[in-house]
Amino acid sequence: MKALLQRVRQARVEIAGQVVGQIEQGLLVLLCAERGDLPAQADKLLAKLLKLRIFSDAAGKMNLSLQDVAGGLLVVSQFTLAADASGGNRPSFTGAALPDDGRCLYDYFVAQARLAHPVVQTGQFGADMQVHLVNDGPVTIPLQF
Question: For the chain, N or C: smaller number of CB within 10 Å?
Protein backbone atom coordinates (compact mmCIF):
# COMPACT_ATOMS: atom_id res chain seq x y z
CA MET A 1 0.00 0.00 0.00
CA LYS A 2 1.05 3.53 -0.69
CA ALA A 3 0.05 6.65 1.19
CA LEU A 4 0.83 10.31 0.93
CA LEU A 5 0.52 12.00 4.32
CA GLN A 6 -0.05 15.72 4.57
CA ARG A 7 0.08 17.45 7.94
CA VAL A 8 -2.82 19.86 7.88
CA ARG A 9 -4.34 22.64 9.93
CA GLN A 10 -7.66 21.67 8.38
CA ALA A 11 -8.93 19.58 5.49
CA ARG A 12 -12.23 18.57 3.95
CA VAL A 13 -13.57 16.45 1.13
CA GLU A 14 -16.54 17.54 -0.96
CA ILE A 15 -18.61 15.56 -3.43
CA ALA A 16 -20.99 17.55 -5.65
CA GLY A 17 -20.62 20.55 -3.33
CA GLN A 18 -21.45 18.59 -0.16
CA VAL A 19 -18.86 18.09 2.61
CA VAL A 20 -18.51 14.36 3.28
CA GLY A 21 -15.45 14.44 5.57
CA GLN A 22 -13.71 17.19 7.50
CA ILE A 23 -10.98 17.55 10.15
CA GLU A 24 -9.12 20.31 11.92
CA GLN A 25 -5.43 19.76 12.83
CA GLY A 26 -4.25 16.33 11.79
CA LEU A 27 -3.32 14.23 8.79
CA LEU A 28 -4.84 14.03 5.35
CA VAL A 29 -4.00 10.55 4.07
CA LEU A 30 -4.21 9.85 0.35
CA LEU A 31 -4.36 6.04 0.28
CA CYS A 32 -3.66 3.66 -2.60
CA ALA A 33 -4.04 -0.11 -2.62
CA GLU A 34 -1.85 -1.84 -5.18
CA ARG A 35 -2.16 -5.27 -6.77
CA GLY A 36 -1.12 -7.95 -4.30
CA ASP A 37 -1.56 -5.79 -1.20
CA LEU A 38 -2.86 -7.53 1.91
CA PRO A 39 -4.47 -6.37 5.17
CA ALA A 40 -1.12 -6.85 6.94
CA GLN A 41 0.32 -3.99 4.86
CA ALA A 42 -2.63 -1.78 5.80
CA ASP A 43 -2.00 -2.60 9.47
CA LYS A 44 1.69 -1.64 9.21
CA LEU A 45 0.86 1.59 7.39
CA LEU A 46 -1.74 2.58 9.97
CA ALA A 47 0.56 1.80 12.91
CA LYS A 48 3.32 3.90 11.35
CA LEU A 49 1.20 6.95 10.54
CA LEU A 50 -0.43 7.04 13.98
CA LYS A 51 2.97 7.12 15.69
CA LEU A 52 4.98 9.14 13.14
CA ARG A 53 6.42 12.12 15.01
CA ILE A 54 5.73 14.96 12.58
CA PHE A 55 3.86 17.46 14.76
CA SER A 56 5.66 20.22 16.61
CA ASP A 57 6.25 20.15 20.34
CA ALA A 58 6.40 23.27 22.56
CA ALA A 59 9.94 23.97 21.33
CA GLY A 60 8.85 23.86 17.68
CA LYS A 61 10.60 20.54 17.00
CA MET A 62 8.79 17.76 15.09
CA ASN A 63 8.53 15.42 18.03
CA LEU A 64 4.83 14.57 18.48
CA SER A 65 2.60 12.01 16.78
CA LEU A 66 -0.97 12.31 15.57
CA GLN A 67 -2.04 10.49 18.72
CA ASP A 68 0.00 12.85 20.91
CA VAL A 69 -1.77 15.91 19.50
CA ALA A 70 -5.19 14.19 19.32
CA GLY A 71 -5.42 15.25 15.69
CA GLY A 72 -7.94 14.19 13.09
CA LEU A 73 -7.38 11.66 10.36
CA LEU A 74 -8.98 12.22 6.94
CA VAL A 75 -8.55 9.17 4.68
CA VAL A 76 -9.13 9.60 0.95
CA SER A 77 -8.82 6.83 -1.64
CA GLN A 78 -6.28 7.77 -4.32
CA PHE A 79 -5.57 5.06 -6.90
CA THR A 80 -3.49 7.52 -8.95
CA LEU A 81 -0.62 7.06 -6.47
CA ALA A 82 -0.01 3.81 -8.37
CA ALA A 83 0.67 5.75 -11.58
CA ASP A 84 3.53 4.67 -13.80
CA ALA A 85 4.52 7.46 -16.20
CA SER A 86 7.78 5.88 -17.37
CA GLY A 87 6.44 4.64 -20.71
CA GLY A 88 4.95 7.74 -22.26
CA ASN A 89 2.89 10.80 -21.58
CA ARG A 90 -0.24 9.03 -20.37
CA PRO A 91 0.22 7.36 -16.97
CA SER A 92 -0.64 3.71 -16.57
CA PHE A 93 -2.56 2.62 -13.49
CA THR A 94 -2.17 -1.12 -13.95
CA GLY A 95 -0.31 -1.31 -10.63
CA ALA A 96 -3.40 -0.20 -8.72
CA ALA A 97 -5.54 -2.86 -7.10
CA LEU A 98 -8.65 -3.87 -9.01
CA PRO A 99 -11.62 -1.75 -7.86
CA ASP A 100 -13.24 -4.44 -5.67
CA ASP A 101 -9.91 -5.33 -4.05
CA GLY A 102 -9.04 -1.66 -3.58
CA ARG A 103 -12.40 -0.96 -1.94
CA CYS A 104 -11.97 -3.91 0.43
CA LEU A 105 -8.52 -2.75 1.53
CA TYR A 106 -9.66 0.88 1.83
CA ASP A 107 -12.65 -0.16 3.94
CA TYR A 108 -10.41 -2.40 6.06
CA PHE A 109 -7.92 0.42 6.62
CA VAL A 110 -10.69 2.85 7.63
CA ALA A 111 -12.28 0.31 9.99
CA GLN A 112 -8.94 -0.38 11.67
CA ALA A 113 -8.23 3.36 11.91
CA ARG A 114 -11.59 3.90 13.64
CA LEU A 115 -10.73 1.20 16.17
CA ALA A 116 -7.33 2.77 16.90
CA HIS A 117 -8.03 6.52 16.72
CA PRO A 118 -10.96 8.65 17.91
CA VAL A 119 -11.27 11.11 14.99
CA VAL A 120 -11.44 9.46 11.56
CA GLN A 121 -13.22 10.98 8.58
CA THR A 122 -13.20 9.79 4.97
CA GLY A 123 -13.90 10.62 1.40
CA GLN A 124 -15.94 8.19 -0.70
CA PHE A 125 -14.19 5.38 -2.54
CA GLY A 126 -14.35 5.81 -6.31
CA ALA A 127 -16.11 9.19 -6.20
CA ASP A 128 -15.09 12.39 -7.97
CA MET A 129 -13.94 14.33 -4.92
CA GLN A 130 -12.63 17.81 -4.32
CA VAL A 131 -10.09 17.87 -1.51
CA HIS A 132 -9.45 21.16 0.27
CA LEU A 133 -6.60 21.52 2.73
CA VAL A 134 -4.38 23.93 4.53
CA ASN A 135 -1.03 22.12 4.53
CA ASP A 136 0.83 22.83 7.76
CA GLY A 137 4.54 23.39 7.24
CA PRO A 138 4.19 22.19 4.55
CA VAL A 139 4.88 18.65 5.69
CA THR A 140 4.19 15.94 3.10
CA ILE A 141 5.52 12.42 3.58
CA PRO A 142 5.17 9.35 1.32
CA LEU A 143 4.86 5.92 2.94
CA GLN A 144 4.82 2.50 1.34
CA PHE A 145 4.38 -0.95 2.87
Answer: C
Catalytic site includes residue 22: no
Q: Which of 80, 124, 140, 144 is catalytic?
A: 80
pTM: 0.95
Q: What distance, in Å, lies between the first and last C-alpha atoms of the chain?
A: 5
pLDDT digits (tens, 9 = 90+) for 4-50: 999 999 999 999 999 999 999 999 999 999 999 999 999 999 999 99
Q: Is 80 a catalytic residue?
A: yes
Quick check: 52 and 24 in contact, CB under 8 A?
no
Catalytic-residue membership of 78: yes
Provide the domain limits for residue 78: 2-130
In a domain, 103, yes or no: yes
Q: How many domains does the chain have?
A: 1
Return the CATH number at 89. 3.50.80.10
At 73, the amino acid letter reads: L
